Amino acid sequence: MERFEGVRLQRAVLEDFAAALLRGAGMSVDSAAATARAMTDASARGVDTHGVRLVPFYLDQLENRRVNPAPAVTATRTASACVVVDADGGLGHLASYRAVDEAAQVAEETGLAAAVVTRSAHHGATGVYTLEAARRGFVAFGCTHADALVVPHGGVKPFFGTNPVSFAAPAPGEEPVLLDMATSAVPLNRVHLRRDTGTKLPPEVAVGPDGIATTDPHVATGLIPVGGLGYGYKGAGLAMMVEILCAALTGMPHGLRMGKFTGPGKPVTIGHFFLLLKPQAFAATGFESSIAAILADLRAQPAQPGQEVMAPGDPEKREAAQRAALGVPLDRRTWGRLVAFAGTFGVAVPDASVDGGPGGA
Length: 361
Description:
Layout: E1 6-9, H1 11-24, H2 29-44, H3 55-63, E2 74-79, E3 82-86, H4 92-110, E4 112-120, H5 127-135, E5 139-144, E6 165-171, E7 174-181, H6 188-197, E8 206-207, E9 222-223, H7 228-231, H8 233-248, E10 270-277, H9 287-299, H10 314-326, E11 328-331, H11 332-345, E12 353-355
Parallel strand pairs: 3-4
Antiparallel strand pairs: 1-11, 1-12, 2-3, 4-10, 5-6, 5-10, 6-7, 8-9
């Protein structure tokens, strides 16, 4: 996780502030609430790349009329275990929560359900929605695609989006197990965060305009798939899977053809995919004890010096506990942007404590 200096706010205060800024820019109450809820959930768990620091990006989308500020989200059950949610051109948070809601109702009846979201836009951290499903007792998979930012394995120009995938499963006595990862070596927002915090990128995660790997976030114009320069075919293969699930199944254009998310231009619509499974439909007994045993055995494995064997989501669980006690951190540049937007929209700025670290991302 990234470490940075900035400010801290309590989660509820931060969520209310983010929602107020979005409403100030013209977003409907329900869409603003869902967007703020998703962003704050990510920030509270240490996923700062997809947390409240996205507010300026979403405000830009609204200002440039790239998204519908007041979408009328609808859901249609198209088969016994299939749901299609129409996001009506809005940001994807409201529609993604709706997709989980609809799929959960169907999965209670059928044992499993798939929901796609069409005519949507950026929905933040995909893990927000699989985590929500797992908190309700379901095993969940989700993914989304994006504009072309990632070079194909062996290529020099971006073709795929960062195309994240997420998997979550309920765990007895603790927050669900959660995998939430881009199929690129890092998400684009990590490049932006490194620019804002003045730190270099790790090697083999990004390329410059010439297609050559770079550690300078200001030079980076494209990302490398998971697996790096030598084994990036793995990430590229996963990105292709996501493209099929989120573009082909939803009727949306794939990354290379959808245009760019940022700046002026026509609205860019994308798709999301969710699959929910009811554990009791497959394992009538023993599911919870099996999950507990897997986690206990994994965490008990011998570790290399200075290391610790953890399950997916364990670092975020620890960060969430710290942030619940100390407040959610924001880097100084993001906080300055939010304060400036508050002045523009006449939104009251909440009190924030100065923080010299540790933050988290």
